[in-house]
Write a structure and sequence with these properties.
By secondary structure, this protein is mostly beta strands. It has a single domain, classed as Pnp Oxidase, Chain A, CATH 2.30.110. Helix content is 15%, strand content 45%. It has three helices and twelve strands. A seven-stranded antiparallel sheet has the order 3-2-6-9-10-5-4. A hairpin with a 5-residue loop joins strand 7 and strand 8. The chain is globular and about 45 Å long. Bound molecules: flavin mononucleotide. Flavin mononucleotide binds next to strand 3, strand 5 and helix 3.
Length: 158
């Protein structure tokens, strides 16, 4: 059975997710960041996480080449940050955004519900995406409610 793209998207949209900003340093040292909802915890020991990046994304080479990357899990009041890292030109995405450098050397978007700094562990084939796996080096989390994505739209916990 061949799967039609719209049907695939509609079915996947039934799986409610949180939203992250994944970030890394490009080869020229400039920070890249991209909104992703393909995040998952993978392993507790060692502590591994993953997200998937479109092979055609401007930021894809950075996630493959950098020694590490960061993930910021967004809070319910960070919808504008999610939109910014999905659609703004890469050159201006970090304008006005709180950034820090932790262990991995990647730019870390601070202020989220949780923030993970990772060493690149593996890059796997994922069809038209790359599966980026990281080993968590440092993390922080705080109280609050998450920003959610469901059926192609932002939502929050009721
Ligand atoms: C809620 C949401 C979730 C997204 N999830 C992903 C994802 O998991 N992987 C991905 O490659 N792009 C995802 N995107 C699209 C990217 O954020 C967007 O295409 C981005 O601009 C591509 O990065 P680039 O600027 O490096 O090309 C998502 C967008 C939104 C709004």
């Amino acid at each position: 059975m061949s799967i039609e793209k719209r049907a695939f998207r509609d079915a996947m949209g039934c799986f409610a997710t949180g939203i992250c900003v994944a970030s890394a340093s490009a080869a020229d040292g400039k920070p890249v960041g991209v909104t992703v909802n393909s995040f998952s915890s993978v392993s507790l020991d060692p502590p591994l996480v993953l997200f998937c990046i479109d092979r055609k994304a401007e930021s894809a080479p950075a996630f493959q080449q950098a020694a590490g990357f960061a993930l910021s899990i967004l809070a319910e009041d960070q919808k504008e940050i999610s939109a910014n890292f999905a659609v703004a030109p890469m050159a201006t995405r970090w304008d006005g955004m709180p950034m820090a450098i932790w262990e991995s050397g990647a730019p870390v978007l601070t202020g989220g519900l949780a923030t993970l700094d990772c060493a690149l562990h593996a890059v796997h084939d994922g069809g038209d995406h790359l599966i980026i796996v990281g080993r968590v080096l440092r993390l922080e989390s705080r109280a609050g409610s998450p920003l959610l994505y469901y059926r192609g739209a932002y939502t929050t916990l009721v």
